[in-house]
Amino acid sequence: MSTITTEQMRFWSPEVRELEPYVPGEQPKIQNLLKLNTNENPYPPSPKVVEAVQAVLANSADVLRLYPDPDASALKQAIAKQQHVDVSHVFVGNGSDEVLAHIFKAFFVQELPILYPDITYSFYPVYSQFFGVKTKVLPLNDDFEIVVDDYKQPNGGIIITNPNAPTSIALGLSAIEEVLQANPDSVVVIDEAYVDFGAESAVALVEKYDNLVVCQTTSKSRSLAGLRVGFAIAQPHLIAALEAVKNSFNSYPIDRFAIAAAVASFEDQEYFEAQNEKVIASREKLVAQLTELGFKVLPSSANFIFASLSSKDAAELAAELRERGIIVRYFNKPRINQFLRITIGTDEQNQRLVDTLKNDILA
Ligand SMILES: Cc1ncc(COP(=O)(O)O)c(C=O)c1O
Q1: Which pTM was predicted?
Q2: How is the chain split into domains, by residue range?
Q3: How far from each other are the two terminal CA atoms of the chain, in whole angstroms?
Q4: Closest ligand 1 atom to 220 CA
């Protein structure tokens, strides 16, 4: 950005000149890197996913010249089956980031502001600016929990990440129901990017509430961040709005490889469950080890933890870990600038983190 001059910027739309884009976690090229900064899964996807991609590849001379199914029907069917909903309740997009973008456009451009917590997924303010959505930011309490009563005021929509990111703390379904019941005329979006690591999914409430949209991704619990497939579950009148936005933007967001691979993933429930259990077990072990080292770790229902150490500045700690090839996420933001967000790796990877802290940095 800094190399673009004001004179060159005269070609840009005025609105684009004002944008403050989302900054993704870095994907560095460092040898012997331990990458615990973007909440990717340390395990590979189901072997059936790899087979499905190879099958498309084997057929590529025939099929790649053709557009994929604009409706990604096979993928919607597979998601509907796995989530126990009717296929009319499913929307798919190029990563849940794209699904969220369509959600902001479809539901949140209103007279009243949307409500979301002060500490949450940092894409929400970006989309709000991008689509001209008004916002009212509500502080989490001192324990970094959502205060449900704050979400009982006039609004143009609500978005809650559950479990929240980067705090990792989950909200129970009864609290979510309270929010839904208090807001019958607003769309309530629950972003469940990390739900499979121990939180309760609000998909169970979709039949009951005509104002609920649940958004999920294959990037974390299905080890498919590189594939870019996300989805939303809601009643058909809300799905129709998302389809209208999608078909006004990009009719073919999911390519042939992504459709085949994601279908294979949703069909392999056994692998999915076993892998998530492994991540959860590694998380509990890591939390115990870090607590022993003096860290305060927030209660996590995600594939990452949010931890602070009173004896050492978090930015310095992140920098010292980085010098040793271990990358974690540090946010230089009010209230959370003494925390590190650490993605759960394999037991071996987590042990490297603990050993580096114990024997090297904190010794
Ligand atoms: C809370 C939350 N929602 C959505 C996403 C987007 O995931 P994706 O676009 O990979 O599906 C992320 C990614 O980190 C996230 O943390």
Answers
A1: 0.96
A2: 8-45+270-361, 47-268
A3: 41
A4: 10
**Is the CB of residue 208 less than 8 Å from the CB of residue 233?**
no
Quote the CA–CA distance of 100 and 105 in Å, as a whole number.
9
Given ligand 1 and candidates 41, 97, 164, which is best to mutate, with the most ligand atoms within 8 Å of its CB? Answer: 97
Q: How far apart are CA 177 and CA 208, in angstroms?
A: 10
Best of 22, 96, 124 for a ligand 1 pocket test (most atoms within 8 Å of beta carbon): 96
Ligand 1 contact, 168 CB (< 6 A): no
Q: Is 41 in the pocket of ligand 1 (CB under 6 A)?
A: no
pLDDT for the residue 118: 97
Confidence of residue 333 (pLDDT cuts 50, 70, 90): very high
Q: What are 29-52's pLDDT values in tens digits? A: 777 899 999 999 999 999 999 999
Residue 225: CB within 6 Å of ligand 1? Answer: yes
Is 80 exceeded by the pLDDT of residue 27?
no
CATH number of 8-45+270-361: 3.90.1150.10
Contacts of 41 (CB under 8 A, 6+ apart): 220, 221, 222, 223, 225, 275, 279, 303
Give the atom of ligand 1 at the shortest distance from the alpha carbon of 161. Answer: 1
**Looking at the predicted structure, is the pLDDT value of residue 1 above 60?**
no
- The residue assigned the tokens 């990792």 is 168
Q: Which atom of ligand 1 is nearest to the CA of 38?
A: 14
Give me the DSSP letters along 301-330.
Answer: -SSEEEEE-TTS-HHHHHHHHHHTTEEEEE
Whether pLDDT at 282 is above 70: yes
| Alpha-carbon gap, residue 194 to 220, rounded angstroms | 7
Given this structure, which CATH class describes domain 47-268? Answer: alpha beta
* Minimum CA distance residue for ligand 1 atom 13: 193
